[in-house]
Each structure stands twice: as structure tokens, then as C-alpha cells.
Amino acid sequence: MTTSTTSNFGFGTQIRKSPYFDATVRWGARDFSVYNHMYIPRDFGDPVKNFWNLVSAAILCDVAVERQVEITGPDAAVFTQLLTPRDLTSCAVGQCKYVLITNADGGILNDPVLLRLGENHFWLSLADNDILLWAQGVAINAGMDVKITEPDVSPLQLQGPNSGKIMQSLFGDLVNDLRYYWLEELDLDGIPLIVSRTGWSSELGYELYLRDGTRGDELWEKIMAAGKPHGLAAGHTSSIRRIEGGMLSYHADMDIDTNPYELGLDRLVNLDADTNFIGRQALQRIHNEGVQRQLVGVEISGAPLSGPNTSFWPVLKSDNVVGKVTSAIYSPRLEKNIALAMVAIESSQLGTTLEVQMSIGVVAATVVEKPFYDPNKKITTAS
Asked: Of 5, 15, 273, 331, whose Cβ has the fewest other Cβ atoms within 10 Å?
């Protein structure tokens, strides 16, 4: 464990700290950014080392910024369906679903993980956007009996090939039966938790949703102690691994002006289901007409990128701008610069040669298959 102070961070009270904040600083968090009006650790040292820790052993990440929108009440199931084009009628109690929240134009407002805790009890585990306010606004005129709140819930991510062993040390053999995208209500020495086999890493992993914010420091230390024999390190969500896995980041790879079909997420729009949801007419029209652009995988030539892109790099074809790079990184495992890019449909075919305008100049690029690694998700879904 390393020690640090917050003397140089300049934190204020208008942005919230997670229940794990002090623990992450003790364990080496060097820098933070703001996500969902909260501080999130973004730097524990070398991001490449963080990547190798993740893919070779395990890391523990403070993702309390994944705030929960809790939907309860007699009409909770019908109301929750109203928010998403994914058919939830077959979502069982105890199951999780990756869903999209769309507006009347079919634009994406968020891409949360939905957790069904009861027949009329749902959580939306959010990406970075104020969906609590959206849901409360929709409820005003929905004419349904629902209650929409933000509960005292703060998730941690335990991710990596050794995460299962660590979970077994913490909870015993019962976690062995937890299936991919399912949840269990558990406690750890009296600490109340919802545990799901989910995560934002493309690796085997779990999320532990703490239901009592006063016990965050205690929970962090218990997990780190249990993980010590298994190489567990404090870490942060890995841009390298999530881009390798083709995982999307809200505000980077999608926003309110992006629709599901442009992302290739047709499977999350169930127009044939007998369900009512916001954006149905718009998404039906987009489905019928087709899209004008597509998110693709791209390999960028040249020297290894020194870090992720911090702006949207223009993508060129025959000197014309045909799109933008949304997320880019150098993968030390693949030994390639890999990226996600939103490009005109005419430039989206595999093998298309493009150019990317970067600060160092124009660099050659090629459209390739995505995800870049483990395309069949064998790692995350393995029994």
C-alpha cells in the first residue's frame, strides 16, 4: 500500500466524494476526474501496469460514480420499460441487462446496466448523465404509480482472472453459481451488498454494490486483504482493455445525437416486441431508412500513442472529412494503435483505408473488425 495526501487535489464540497475516497488515496490514487458529479480515481501510476494487473491478476476500482436510479412502486416494471427500447418482459428477478435509454428522437441518453431486484424494484447503474432527473421528469406525465430516487448505493468493481478466487475467499462457494449478468443479495461481515457478475473491463469480474455508505472504507480494506494472495492491486478502469473489448464510453463513443443502429447495437432495440417505450417511432423510422454513419474499429499506423485521445480526431478519405476517432489507445498486448471511430457509411467497410488527423500530422489507418481482442467474450462468460 502506498500513502498520499489530498493536499494538491483542490477538492471542494460541491462535488461528492465516494465512500471509498480515503481508501483510494491511501492505496495510491494520484489523480481524479469528475463523473456524475462525483470524483473518480483515474490514476494509480502507470496505466500500462494497471492494464497488466487487470489482465494477469485482478484490480479493485472505485466506481461509486455509477450512481443508481431506483425505480419502485406498483407500476415500476411498466415504467422502466418505457425508458428503454430493449424488451424487458423476459428479464427475471435477479437478472441484469445492458440497456439503452433513448429520447423521442431515438438519441441515446445513457447506457446503464439494469438490475432487477424484485418484481417492481429496479436499479439503473448509470454512465455519466443525469438520468435521475430524466426519469423523474418522465414520471410526472406518465400517469403511473412509481417512486424514483437515488438510493445509498456505491459500487466497486473487482475485475480480472483472479477475481473469482478473491470472491470465493470473501463469500465462499456460493459465488461459484453466480452467472454472467445475474445478481445476488449478500452481506460481508454484516456489510449489506448486492453482488453482480458484471463490470466494465471485458474481463471476468464482479461488481459489489455497497448499500451503506458509512462502511465503504471497511469494505475496501476487506477486499484488498482477501486479494493479497491473488495479486490484487488497487486500480482504475482501463482504457486499454475497454477499447480492446470494444466497450463504449458515453460522451466519447455516443451521445444524445447518436442512435443505437449507428453503434451496431440493433440487438438492444426490440421493435417487434409488444412494448411501449420512448423513441419507438423514431427508431422504427431509422431502422427502415438505414443509417448514414457507423461506429467501426480502426488500426492507426505509426509510433505507439502516448495515451488516449483527449479530443475527437478527424478521419479523412481522399482529403475529405468522413468522421471522427472517438476513442484511441495503444495496446501493449496487441502492439498496435487501436481506436473506435464514427465514420460515414460509405467508409465503414472492413479494409477501407483512411487517414487520421492528429496533432503530429496525418496518419494512415484501416477499418478492422471489433472487438480487437476476445471477440466472442469467452473471458467474461466463462463458467
From this structure: 5
Low-confidence ranges of the chain (pLDDT < 70): 1-10, 383
Domain with CATH 2.40.30.110 in the chain: 292-383
Predicted model pTM:
0.95
Half-sphere exposure of 60 (CA within 13 A, CB side): 27
* Inter-CA distances, 153 with 32, 164, 195, 222, 236, Å: 20, 22, 12, 18, 19
Q: Identity (one letter) of the amino acid at 301?
A: S
Q: End-to-end alpha-carbon separation of the chain, Å? A: 32
Class of the CATH domain delimited by 292-383: mainly beta
Give Cβ neighbours of residue 254 (< 8 Å, ≥ 6 apart).
108, 111, 248, 263, 295
Please name the fold of domain 21-62+154-243: Gyrase A; domain 2 (3.30.1360)
Question: Which residues of the chain are in CATH 3.30.1360.120 domains?
Answer: 21-62+154-243
Distance CA 176, CA 270 (A): 32
Annotate 222-267 with DSSP letters as a single string. Answer: HHHHHHGGGTEEEE---HHHHHHTT---BTTTB-TT--GGGGT-GG
User: Cα separation of 110 and 168, whole Å?
Assistant: 33
Q: Which residues have CB under 8 Å from 376's CB, separation 6+?
A: none
- The sign of the torsion formed by the CA atoms of 127, 51, 326, 21 equals positive
Domain 68-149 has CATH 2.30.40.10: no
